């Protein structure tokens, strides 16, 4: 098996006697053990009169087996063992996965293995889970992704299984005369869940032999009925569905044009990756690229190539463009430009050096790939296990083994107007059909002869160019030798008025990568909502201005980001460190020579307004979260406030604003990874020159937070355009010390599975139900939330209050072993070693921001957790969380389905955000 030289894990591939394919992964340092099982069954296999069956079955397997019959027991076990679990149903696969502390892996596998040998399909659970599936379907009724996906399904070949409804609802899964759904569910399970169609990955610190014995013990009993997958006999798109213009009405304000080409499956070519080569050229964003030419003409904002759905007998290849309002008037010209560029690739773009350049980037990524969480690794490898030859399971995604120009040419021959479908998603077009299930208005019209003639023989455009050789490719493959003191936490190596430099050479993850954070605090940037919006505008304009020249750096394995926050802006660079100084200089030069171009400003302002207005179409629960953080953090206003400020800002305000912002700066820089101290000091000089840092006297910007104090229950209603109601309850800690963090974190950990089981599984209040740990500006916070198609905020509040009133008793009923297991599970999660360079950088950076300059906050919180007693937690529930005594904010939204029910009138309303925020410090 081909593995990365930087990968210390050991692998073993085996097939059990029942033909189950297994990959074992021994990772000595894995903080948790993980398992993933995928079965080659998905919604393509649903019976026509039982659409959503595969998805319903995925839900049901979690709800009790012969050996472990209690509904919700698996979830509780996972939670107490410091783990997590999930599953998803795709078109031709259903995948289940979980992770737990290593000591609980054997018991976890015993419980998990039963899903595939002895599920109960408990009758009560069938009724309740059918409602959960229906809730999940209803939750997405106003989700554009689902609404557009349904039109996709209705406009392909109707006899292809892709056309089926994948989620299921109360009608497709109802009990029918002499046909209870439970009977059909069991028949579907016995027919399709066969060991020879499954793949299993077990990963953990256990030895390969021990993992092998787990595989034999817990998975050998999965029956193998010898079932083979029947090849899909029909194409995804026939001549009837080709050469069509499809217009779709979204809920959000978007203007997206997608050219879609139907190809046969290309899975067999994973070693050559011909489509990656084509997508790499079509999706290029550098000078002279298709994106650059169309953007300069003011027709598009973004372009992406190479997406599209795929399956065992089809692959869509798409080119998607986000249009400007001007672009909407020139759709045919944009399509012409795409075919001009495809012709350029056909005629001049097939070069072995281009293939080798792409290959070198993938080889670097493979050689220096960083570890991911055990759960993510297992669920990613299980898909590879079913799709690649055993020796390529680890390497397959990175492999570019052979430049095959004839194959690339053959696939380019599918990218023609005659094999194209054109989809335009935009508001206010002409529609004559409505999609089933999601009620999306759309229309389908054939291309005209004029369009086809224009696209088949487009002229050449001399401004279009193929990309040059990439100057950002790394040439240094080995990390620097370790310097003395590399194992210490980050050190403050330079402190000047207005400028601080933190540095650490990474000693454990030995990869030639680095991360640079530059936090630029400016009180002027956040002194009003209008200034906060100007800061965000300037950020977007700078990112837009550097995109073309910095694009090759992204291709070469570097990334950059600039984002606004509550103190000003932060610049972040990451990836291979050798050429990062080049990228930093490029960004700073562009900043120094900044231009505020009127046309680009108009487009960017319009894009930002559109994104923020679209947030009003987000799920109600997302809107409540946004409103809550905007309410409590005056420097982080909610969308309506941002929109109001942005509408009147003009481009000529920006130059003076940037000057004023940079007249009062405080910069914190952190240089971490494969850097020598001399590199860090040299980068710091570049930064100080760029920002004219000389004896500045400004400290960091304040990041105020409204403290709740003894406020009792406060309520705030948010108007959402949605059928569902939603409610979110927030409790805030006054103190920021490790003990308070421990208490709030443990409360969330202890509540989460019981809350989910009680309010979602048992009471069926909705699909989106949960608890969350929400620290704001260092103050711990606890959140309980529900979005519900069946209950108004008043009922949701009653249900949550009933839960919190009873929760102290739930804690008292835990036996000592369960109490200790829960605590240990959380301590293990908090103390878990960093997975990779990026995760460690993020943790160090947060510590710098939180003034945790000894970098030991985690250890302090873990120590406090180990000291917490059950009495402490019961006291916390009774004194802080119980409704009678609680100081809390209740955010709520009354859904259209419940508009006739009484409004919620608990506590005191927050009528004036301004007055409320005056309490901020």
UniProtKB/TrEMBL annotation:
BP-aspect Gene Ontology terms: proteolysis
Keyword Metal-binding set for record: yes
UniProt keyword annotations, A-Z: Hydrolase, Metal-binding, Metalloprotease, Protease, Zinc
All residue ranges annotated as the Peptidase M16 N-terminal domain in the record: 21-158
Pfam families: Peptidase_M16, Peptidase_M16_C, Peptidase_M16_M, PqqF-like_C_4
Cofactor(s) this protein cannot do without: Zn(2+)
Listed EC numbers: 3.4.24.55
Enzyme class: hydrolase
Domain Coenzyme PQQ synthesis protein F-like C-terminal lobe: 746-845
MF terms in GO: metal ion binding; metalloendopeptidase activity
Ubl conjugation as UniProt keyword: no
Domain Peptidase M16 C-terminal: 182-360
PROSITE patterns recorded: INSULINASE
Domain of life of the native organism: Bacteria
Gene Ontology terms: cellular component: cytoplasm
Domain Peptidase M16 middle/third: 366-640
Purpose: Endopeptidase that degrades small peptides of less than 7 kDa, such as glucagon and insulin.
Family: Belongs to the peptidase M16 family.
Protein name as it appears in the record: Protease 3
Species of provenance: Photobacterium ganghwense
């Amino acid at each position: 098996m081909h593995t990365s030289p930087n990968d210390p894990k050991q692998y073993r591939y085996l097939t059990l006697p029942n033909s189950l394919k297994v990959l074992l992964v021994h990772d000595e340092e894995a903080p948790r053990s993980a398992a993933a099982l995928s079965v080659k069954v998905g919604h393509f296999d649903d019976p026509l009169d039982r659409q959503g069956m595969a998805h319903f079955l995925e839900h049901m397997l979690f709800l009790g087996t012969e050996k472990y019959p209690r509904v919700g027991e698996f979830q509780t076990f996972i939670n107490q063992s410091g783990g997590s679990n999930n599953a998803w149903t795709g078109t031709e696969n259903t995948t289940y996965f979980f992770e737990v502390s290593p000591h609980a892996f054997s018991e976890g596998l015993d419980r998990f293995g039963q899903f595939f040998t002895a599920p109960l399909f408990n009758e009560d659970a069938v009724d309740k889970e059918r409602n959960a599936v229906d809730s999940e379907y209803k939750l997405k009724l106003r989700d554009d992704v689902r609404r557009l996906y349904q039109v996709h399904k209705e406009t392909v070949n109707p006899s292809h299984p892709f056309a089926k409804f994948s989620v299921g609802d109360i009608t497709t899964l109802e009990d029918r005369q002499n046909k209870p759904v439970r009977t059909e569910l069991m028949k579907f399970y016995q027919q399709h869940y066969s060991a020879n169609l499954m793949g299993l990955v077990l990963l953990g610190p256990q030895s390969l032999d021990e993992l092998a014995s787990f595989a034999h013990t817990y998975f050998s009993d999965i029956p193998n009925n010898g079932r083979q997958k029947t090849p899909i006999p029909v194409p995804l798109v026939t001549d009837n569905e080709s050469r069509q213009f499809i217009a779709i009405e979204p809920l959000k304000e978007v203007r997206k044009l997608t050219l879609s080409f139907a190809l046969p499956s290309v899975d067999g070519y994973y070693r050559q990756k011909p489509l990656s080569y084509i997508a790499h050229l079509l999706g290029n964003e550098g000078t002279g690229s298709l994106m650059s030419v169309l953007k300069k003409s003011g027709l598009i904002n973004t372009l992406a190539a190479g997406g599209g759905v795929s399956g065992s007998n089809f692959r869509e290849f798409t080119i998607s463009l986000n249009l400007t309002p001007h672009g909407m008037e020139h759709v045919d010209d944009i399509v012409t430009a795409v075919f001009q560029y495809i012709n350029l690739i056909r005629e001049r773009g097939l070069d072995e050096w281009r293939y080798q350049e792409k290959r070198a980037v993938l080889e670097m990524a493979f050689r220096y790939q960083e570890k991911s969480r055990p759960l993510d690794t297992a669920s990613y490898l299980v898909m590879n296990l079913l799709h690649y030859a055993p020796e390529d399971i680890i390497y397959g995604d990175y492999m570019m083994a052979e430049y095959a120009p004839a194959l690339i040419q053959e696939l380019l021959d599918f990218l023609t107007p005659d094999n194209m479908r054109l989809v335009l998603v935009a508001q206010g077009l002409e529609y004559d059909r409505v999609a089933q299930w999601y009620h999306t208005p759309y229309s389908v019209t054939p291309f005209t002869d004029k369009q086809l003639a224009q696209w088949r023989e487009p002229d050449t455009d001399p401004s279009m160019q193929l990309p040059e050789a990439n100057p950002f490719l790394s040439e240094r493959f080995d990390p620097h030798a370790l310097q003395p003191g590399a194992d210490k936490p980050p050190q403050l190596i330079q402190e000047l008025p207005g400028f601080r430099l933190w540095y650490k050479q990474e000693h454990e993850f030995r990869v030639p990568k680095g991360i640079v954070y530059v936090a630029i605090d400016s009180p002027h940037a956040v002194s009003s909502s209008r200034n906060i919006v100007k800061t965000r505008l300037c950020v977007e304009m700078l990112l837009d201005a550097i995109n073309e020249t910095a694009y090759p750096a992204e291709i070469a394995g570097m990334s950059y980001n600039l984002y606004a926050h509550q103190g000003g802006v932060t610049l972040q660079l990451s990836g291979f460190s050798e050429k990062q100084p080049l990228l930093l200089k490029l960004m700073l030069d562009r900043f120094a020579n900044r231009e505020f171009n009127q046309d680009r400003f108009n487009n960017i302002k319009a894009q930002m307004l559109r994104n923020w207005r679209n947030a009003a179409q987000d799920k109600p629960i997302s809107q409540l979260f946004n409103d809550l953080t905007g309410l409590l953090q005056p420097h982080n206003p909610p969308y309506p406030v941002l929109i109001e400020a942005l509408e009147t800002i003009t481009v000529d305000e920006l130059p003076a604003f940037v000057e004023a912002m940079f007249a009062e700066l405080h910069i914190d820089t952190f240089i971490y990874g494969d850097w020598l101290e001399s590199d860090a000091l040299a980068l710091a000089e570049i930064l100080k020159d760029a920002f004219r840092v000389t004896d500045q006297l400004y400290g960091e910007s304040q990041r105020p937070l409204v403290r709740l104090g003894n406020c009792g229950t406060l309520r705030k209603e948010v108007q959402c355009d949605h059928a569902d109601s939603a409610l979110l309850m927030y409790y805030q800690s006054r103190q920021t010390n490790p003990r308070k963090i421990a208490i709030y974190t443990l409360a969330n950990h202890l509540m989460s599975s019981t809350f989910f089981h009680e309010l979602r599984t048992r009471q069926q209040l909705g699909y989106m139900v949960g608890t969350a740990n929400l620290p704001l500006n260092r103050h711990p916070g606890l959140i309980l939330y529900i979005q519900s198609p069946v209950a108004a905020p008043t009922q949701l509040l009653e249900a949550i209050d009933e839960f919190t009133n009873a929760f102290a008793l739930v804690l008292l009923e835990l036996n000592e072993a369960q109490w200790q297991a829960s605590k240990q599970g959380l301590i293990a999660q908090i103390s878990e070693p960093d997975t990779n360079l990026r995760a460690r950088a993020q943790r160090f950076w947060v510590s710098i921001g939180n003034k945790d300059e000894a970098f030991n906050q985690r250890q302090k919180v873990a120590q406090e957790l180990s000291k917490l007693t059950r009495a402490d937690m019961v006291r916390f529930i009774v004194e802080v969380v119980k409704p009678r005594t609680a100081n809390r904010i209740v955010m709520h939204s009354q859904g259209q389905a419940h508009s006739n029910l009484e409004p919620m009138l608990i506590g005191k309303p927050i009528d004036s955000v301004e007055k409320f925020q005056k309490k901020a410090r």
